[in-house]
Amino acid sequence: MKSLMIQGTSSGAGKTTLVAALCRIFSEKGYRVAPFKSQNMSNFAYITPEFEISRAQVIQAIGARCDITSDLNPILLKPVGNYYSMVYLNGKYYKKMHAKNYYEKFVNSEGIKIASKSLKTLQENFDLIILEGAGSPAEINLQKYDIANMRIAQKANASVLLVSDIDKGGSFASLVGTMKLIEKKYQKLVKGFVFNKFRGDIEVLKPGFQKLKNITKIPVMGIIPMMKLNLPEEDSLNAKPKDFLWTKKNISKIDNELNNLAKTVKSNIDIKSIERMLK
């Protein structure tokens, strides 16, 4: 069993879509693939009579062509305001919790156990798990409560790709700064960088790659262009979730869009190096 984790220098860096694309790419290569996000904060849910998980992991599962189960997203937080969230565990409603109680009394006891159990279940049933981080692994005020990034990467024995949204600017500084702020025991897990949402002349960007490697000892493994995506909205704290019907027709549209996304990502990321990294 192999594990790859996509983390970001910030929220909105493109982790969700990159995981979905890689799930499809490695599924096409014959791997039995499953996505995994230990903890997701989102009001964009996939709801069945049996369980409820984030919509993002369902789209990734379609990319992976795997069954949709609660193990893909064992902890779902639905924010309701004033630092409170409705907490779902293994797809079932648990209770409403204040952020302070959630961090200080839950994540490092029950939270990490629940996440680890789901991860182990997936590892026993798939060849490759592609994990998605949450926010940034360099939030130094929250690192001791972070069960969605480096701690779970270590448990999964995952190689980490760190992705940055270059359209926002400051990507080189974000990548270097993130590496500086990650705890030293985790820095060795990061094997490559990915620049996402790039537009312009790539030759202008390339001179910075060697300087970046000189500073961090980590290579750039992909430059993914800005793309228009026709997928259901990703997780967002600033948007109201819209209903999405999971009909065969709509799922087929997602499937086709994931094929197009995977083709673009595959032609702009070093898949061979990733495969070598996973051996």
Structural topology:
Blueprint: E1 2-8, H1 15-28, E2 33-36, E3 39-41, E4 45-47, E5 52-54, H2 55-64, E6 75-81, E7 84-89, E8 92-98, H3 99-105, H4 107-125, E9 128-132, H5 150-156, E10 159-165, H6 171-181, H7 184-187, E11 190-198, H8 202-205, H9 207-216, E12 220-225, H10 248-266, H11 271-278
Parallel strand pairs: 1-9, 1-10, 2-9, 3-6, 10-11, 11-12
Antiparallel strand pairs: 4-5, 6-7, 7-8
Helix pairs in contact: 1-2, 1-10
Structure description:
The protein is α/β, with parallel strands linked by helices. The protein has one domain: Rossmann fold (3-Layer(aba) Sandwich). It is 41% helix and 24% strand. The protein contains eleven helices and twelve strands. The chain has a six-stranded parallel β-sheet with strand order 2-9-1-10-11-12, with helices on both faces. Strands 3-6-7-8 form a four-stranded mixed β-sheet. The longest helix is centred in the middle third of the chain and has 19 residues. The termini are close together.
Q: Determine the CATH topology.
A: Rossmann fold
Fraction of helical residues: 40-55%
**Uncertain spans, ≥5 residues at pLDDT below 50?**
none
- Rg calculated over all Cα atoms: 18 Å
Choose one word for the global shape: globular
The succession of helices and strands, N to C, reads EHEEEEHEEEHHEHEHHEHHEHH
In what range is the share of β-strand residues? Answer: 15-25%
CATH homologous superfamily title: P-loop containing nucleotide triphosphate hydrolases
**For the record, what CATH class applies?**
Alpha Beta
- Please work out how many helical segments DSSP would assign: 11
Q: How many structural domains in the coordinates?
A: 1
Tally the beta strands: 12
Second-tier CATH architecture: 3-Layer(aba) Sandwich
Strand numbers in spatial order across the main sheet: 2-9-1-10-11-12
Task: State the separation between the terminal residues, measured CA to CA.
Answer: 10 Å
